[in-house]
Amino acid sequence: MYEQVVAINVGLAMLLAMSLNIITGFAGQPTLGHAAFYGIGAYTSALLTAKAGWPFFLALPAAGAMAALVGVLLGLFSVRVREDFLAVTTIGINFVVVAIFQYVQLFGASLGLAVPKPEFLGVRFGNTEILGLLILLNALVYLFMRHLPNSWLGLALGGVRNDEEAAASLGYNADHYKVFAFTIGTFIAGMTGSVYAHFMGFISSTDFAFPVSIGVLSMAVLGGLGSVTGPLIGALILTLAPEVFRFVSDYRMLVYGGLLVLMMRFQPQGLVGDDSYLQRLWTKIRGRREEGKANAG
Amino acid sequence: MFFQQIVNGIVVGSVYALTAMGATLVYGIMRILDISNAGAYALGAYISFFFLLQTGNPLVAVVMGVALTAVFGFIVQKFLYAPLMDKSPNVALIAGIGLFIFLQDFLRLVGGPQARELNFGAMLPSVRLPGLGLTLYGTWFLILGATAVLLLVLWYLLNRSTVGLAWRATAQDLETAKAMGINTNRVVAFNFILGYGFAAVAGILVGILYNSIYPMMGDVPAYKMLAVIVLGGLGNPLGTVLAALVIGMAETLIGGYVGFFLPRDAIAFVVLILILLWRPQGLLGRRRVS
Amino acid sequence: MPAEQELLKIIGLKKYFGGLKAVDNVDLSVKRGETMGLIGPNGAGKTTFFNMVCGAYTPTAGKILLNGEEIQGLPAHAVARKGIARTFQITRVFKDMTVEDNLLAAFALRRAPGLWASLGRSHTKRNREEAMTYLERVDIAAFAKQKAGDLSLGYMRRLEIARALALEPILLMLDEPCAGLSKDATVDFMELVGKLKSLGTTIMLVEHNMGVATALCDRMTVLSYGVKIAEGTPQEVQSNPVVIDAYLGEAEEAG
Fold first, then answer.
1. Chain B residues 28-67 within an 8 A CB cutoff of chain A
2. What is the mean pLDDT of residues C34-44?
3. Residues B117/B214, Cβ–Cβ less than 8 Å
């Protein structure tokens, strides 16, 4: 069913955008190569199920763990290499990872890999089941994101993002928290990759190329980096945009590029980021409602 | 064969130096990774192609390609980047990516999706040196000559002219430069004109070298120029030249001899990552002291 | 002076930057409950000295003992964990976070040390109420929900101090806390430090302004060109001809 496939794509995009938001939005570390971790998860899961005969539900967390392992390495790298140097390095990691998928036999090289459909308690996973799984994963990650601003970790990442030296003066080891943020974010991206692989039934290296990373980053920025709901809205809009703009299909990329430019120029904090037009509107409405309540009471 | 590879590496490195110079200049002042520079690279080549078709005169084609792209750079700077300077660097980065996507698709719609010939190469003779097993193509002389001349002009502009003094002061510290009475707005504008101009030159030369231009021709430069400017130390023109040669050589020699299993484009990033582990501030970057 | 009274003892501290002797062989001790001033003309090495104690710089040589334990060379976060809290000369609040969150961030050291504990909830009723008491102590409770970056400079300083106090430090270190403040804000600020002193807080204060230092400190150490030139009560130091020379020299250079 067409709607189901679109919904699955939205679900995958939302998970990716939220996972990137942990690293870039909360911890303030640039990531321009997030698709690498998505790909590592996808390939790990594909190999474990197709070649090693693992059941999908073991391969799913293993895919996350493998991505997180590489994520930890990147996190350690981020301790030494900073800001724009780090940003470009993450692009590099994306290219190197994709090149490895494309040229190493184990990963099917240019032929790609076929991935078996998952089975659980005798139920073979079709799109409906995949969609259900994605809704579950999205709910879990969303709950975590909701919790984050009210948690010690959220405060620690806020400190690291704003000023590492000041955070250190409060007893935070900034390096640990950076690596931790990379670990969590890449773990989620890896699991998402696993779901993607089993949904598609076939993966190849270009599914995880640099433009995919840019797409994910654009979603998070469009919605509002560092906000809880922003990346979800960004993922929804940018995944649906190509479907909606189908009638102008020849101008799709033109519209997409133009929208990004206009958006950054006039609403750079994202659609629902701090002090954005929508957020102010929302505060106003809520203020009025509370006023109404107070008057009634 | 060996000499052929070396010369080839130098030519590739020169192309990278030219391609990355525009983004280096922009970074030097604005501290943003300007991916739209790769759009200017394709735009310059296309404008040049258009004028070559119209006039048949290669000189007019090159001059118009560079000049109009530079003007476009001025406009982009004024209406897009200047207002974003006090925002998070992510914002300018995404805006630049958006502009790059927009430009590429615009070129595809206007110029068609197919590759076009930018046929100046046939006018230039090749030289064979059988004793060294070396063939020097006419386009190589053009690239090396143009790179040398442009880098000298740039060096002169930055180090020996009043504009260059203002540029260097602004690159050091924009606020202080402003306080000292330097018109930093003008420096930023000049910087973009120069940055986009350089990108156009690079696009045209690469179009001539491979006798082909196409809407997506900026794709590879978009990320490779970032690898080059970061390796060079970010915003340091000399570092960019050095890094471009290192990456050009590494790609040619590793690709040609060692038979590395990874493709060319990944080699650049492997080199980048290894060198950054050793020098996190890039080849000629200074460590920022807080 | 009995040894157990000394909270902080510094012996032969040195910091060389290449050939420049920024701090050269300085001894210093801070007793429990006292306010020690570190003063001296511009470029005397005060901030370098301060940064070594806080862990921002590693000393070239010398010892820093906190309660008899050597802490020199520890990284800044480890020094904070030993109980030394600091403020910065140029305020460093977490600008995009609320005032309340800035304060709560300082509780983690006591309430949730370590990565796994950090997954716990920070904004509990108890923590928020406690945060308010710290904000009230420096009179900025009214701004709890505002972005810290929107505060005036004077209020940012107060927030920084509240944040430092929330660590419940055994030693509070203030780096030129009055620099850049208006006269009124300076007077307010001196009152605040007076209040902290009366609560028994041990304070080390770097100060360029002699007037502020005299009013606040029990004892002062004077640095000039990286060397300790005097130590004693504010009255003793002020009448010391060597100190007068050092400050006069600066006035002449400036004039």
1. 31, 33
2. 89
3. no
Interface test with A, best of C77, C150, C172 (most A CBs within 10 A): C77
pTM of the complete model: 0.89
pLDDT in tens, C213-236: 898 999 999 999 999 999 999 999
Taking the C-alpha atoms of residue A218 and residue B91, their distance in angstroms, rounded to an integer, is 10
Is C122 in contact with A155 (CB distance < 8 Å)? yes
> Cβ(B118)–Cβ(B207) under 8 Å?
yes
> What is the band of B258 on the pLDDT scale with cuts at 50, 70, 90?
low
C119: which chain A residues are within 8 Å (Cβ-Cβ)? 151-153
| pLDDT reading at B227 higher than 80 | yes
Q: Which residue of B has its CA nearest to A83?
A: B89
Q: Number of C-alpha atoms within 13 angstroms, CB side, residue A107?
A: 22
CATH 3.10.129.10 fits C3-92+169-254, yes or no: no
Nearest CA in chain A to B271: A92
Indicate the DSSP class of residue A151.
B
Of residues C254 and B240, more confidence is placed in B240
Q: What is the DSSP letter of A172?
A: -
Is B274 near chain A, with CB under 8 Å? no
The terminus-to-terminus CA distance of chain B in angstroms comes to 49
Contact assignment for C108 to A274 by CB distance below 8 Å:
no
Q: Dihedral (C-alpha) A211, A214, A218, A220: value to the nearest 10 degrees?
A: 120
Residues 6+ apart with CB under 8 A from A83: A30, B89
pLDDT at B24: 92
Chain C residue nearest residue A152, CA to CA: C118
On the question of pLDDT at C255 being above 60, the answer is no
The Cα A268–Cα A260 span in angstroms is 10
The SS3 of residue B183 is: coil
List the subunits that have 3+ CB pairs under 8 angstroms with A. Answer: B, C
Residue B177, Cβ density class (10 Å: 0-12 exposed, 13-18 middle, ≥19 buried): buried
d(CA C176, CA C204): 10
**What pairs with residue C172 in β-bridges?**
C85, C203
In this predicted structure, the answer to whether residue A121 has a pLDDT above a threshold of 80 is: no
pLDDT for C1 beyond 70: no
Asked if B88 is an interface residue toward chain A (Cβ–Cβ < 8 A), one would say yes
Measure the CA–CA gap between B20 and B241, rounded to whole angstroms.
Answer: 9
- C67: helix, coil or strand? coil
Query: In Å, how far are A212, A268, B84, C63 from A263, measured between CA atoms?
Result: 19, 6, 12, 55
Is residue A92 within 8 angstroms of chain B, CB to CB?
yes
What one-character DSSP code corresponds to residue C22? E
3-class DSSP assignment, residue A52: coil
Q: What is the pLDDT of residue B252?
A: 86
Residue type for position A168: A
Residues of B with Cβ-Cβ distance to A83 under 8 angstroms: 89
Question: Residues C78-124: pLDDT tens digits?
Answer: 999 999 999 998 899 999 999 999 999 999 988 888 888 899 999 99
Least Cα distance to A19 among A194, A217, A156 occurs for A217
- For residue A144, give every residue at least 6 positions away whose Cβ sits within 8 Å of its Cβ, in sequence order, or none: none
pLDDT average, residue stretch A135-148: 97
Q: Which two tokens stand for residue B81?
A: 């980047």
Please state the φ and ψ torsions of residue C175, each to the nearest 5 degrees. Answer: -100, 105
Determine whether the interchain pair B105/A165 forms a contact, defined as Cβ–Cβ distance below 8 Å. no
Span A220-257, pLDDT tens digits: 988 998 999 999 999 999 898 877 777 777 787 888 88
Nearest to A90 by CA among B239, B283, B90: B90
The reply to whether residue A152 touches residue C81, judged by beta carbons under 8 angstroms, is: no
So what's the pLDDT on residue B260? 64
Pairwise CA distance, residues B250 & A100, whole Å = 18
